[in-house]
């Protein structure tokens, strides 16, 4: 004998519960015709008529009523077990929202170590600069650039940033006056993260002269432009660390400013972190805090 049509049984239970194909269809997000078709499949499989179909209503037959009384608790149990297993899976899943540049330049290289240490935790990463995604996208944790701790959330400082000028070694060789802070004839690269050239120029009384400007909207593109020799960019002590350590970028002249925004780890105050999310938080603090 063939297996019972489980989808048809689910549709039957919904229709029997509501005594309406339309209401069953609304709950299942299908059409009333689809519900009717599934019930016909089940009736054919059982060899029984389950509903009396009237002009504007339906009613269970005696066989349909008996079948529903036996199937309803089984279907409830099936749904309950499935939902509980879904919850178990969610306890192992951690949703983390973070800025795109930080995701690619800092988190990405560290991920293999995390996965080796915690193979039972499933990370779901969302590259987004918006703090509200903690609520709207149901993220457990978010890494954000903020001027100060946001009191709406549980926030922990990950890194207090310092802004500094950066360029490729080749660009510095082509513009040796940069070593003295003279910007005449160079291209200043501006990005949305550290919009601080005006502060740096004013603080250190830098000689601008005739300068060109390149504007980009992503910190990653800023670093790529600087490494490609397109000009002088403003980076920070966290995102730029790897490029400086490996010599892809250099600091052409000594000028530093406290960043206007620093890196924070945030999560909701309204619900406790799951054990897995707590593990991810501790790992992020151990890996990036400082």
Automatic annotation (TrEMBL):
<dbReference type="Pfam" id="PF00126">
    <property type="entry name" value="HTH_1"/>
</dbReference>
<keyword id="KW-0238">DNA-binding</keyword>
<dbReference type="GO" id="GO:0043565">
    <property type="term" value="F:sequence-specific DNA binding"/>
</dbReference>
<comment type="similarity">
    <text>Belongs to the LysR transcriptional regulatory family.</text>
</comment>
<protein>
    <submittedName>
        <fullName>LysR family transcriptional regulator</fullName>
    </submittedName>
</protein>
<dbReference type="GO" id="GO:0003700">
    <property type="term" value="F:DNA-binding transcription factor activity"/>
</dbReference>
<dbReference type="GO" id="GO:0006351">
    <property type="term" value="P:DNA-templated transcription"/>
</dbReference>
<keyword id="KW-0804">Transcription</keyword>
<keyword id="KW-0805">Transcription regulation</keyword>
<dbReference type="InterPro" id="IPR000847">
    <property type="entry name" value="LysR_HTH_N"/>
</dbReference>
<dbReference type="InterPro" id="IPR058163">
    <property type="entry name" value="LysR-type_TF_proteobact-type"/>
</dbReference>
<dbReference type="Pfam" id="PF03466">
    <property type="entry name" value="LysR_substrate"/>
</dbReference>
<feature type="domain" description="HTH lysR-type">
    <location>
        <begin position="4"/>
        <end position="61"/>
    </location>
</feature>
<dbReference type="InterPro" id="IPR036388">
    <property type="entry name" value="WH-like_DNA-bd_sf"/>
</dbReference>
<dbReference type="InterPro" id="IPR036390">
    <property type="entry name" value="WH_DNA-bd_sf"/>
</dbReference>
<dbReference type="InterPro" id="IPR005119">
    <property type="entry name" value="LysR_subst-bd"/>
</dbReference>
